[in-house]
Amino acid sequence: MCDQHQFFFEFDKAYNQQLIEKFEASPEHPLTPEVAPSRKGVYALYHRGKLVYAGKALNTTLARRLAEHYRKITSRQNIEVSEVSCRFLTIDGDWFVRAAEDALIQHYSPLWQKSGFGSHVPGRGRPGIRKSQWDITYPPKNT
Q1: CATH tag, 11-116+129-137
Q2: β-pairing verdict for 84-90 and 41-47
Q3: Which of 10, 43, 54, 73 has an alpha carbon 20 to 30 Å from 107's alpha carbon atom?
Q4: pTM above 0.90, yes or no
Q5: Domain ranges across the chain
């Protein structure tokens, strides 16, 4: 007997497809310290119109996470915050937030994703810690 009559609902594919559709339909905003609400969700950053980073706000809020990125970008050379915009979706449920971030990363393969941009690595700048690609390309401004 052939197995072409069996139906298996692929929840992850359905979720990912709907997430990407909703995300792409959401408005793009300039990155500012108060661009997003104080809710859980996912977001992406665009540099000169190209999606370069996707992240989640799970144990924090979209407002806080995007404000952190704003401060990081404004403190760097070779980039202007006016060149950066964002999109975000608020999402309830921790599993759904994690799945949404994964869907965005898998779908877009953002350039800054593994560059060290979103890192909260303790000890950055200590001896023996290798500089990230982000820190090399966009070094801190001299203060």
Answers
A1: 3.40.1440.10
A2: antiparallel
A3: 73
A4: no
A5: 11-116+129-137
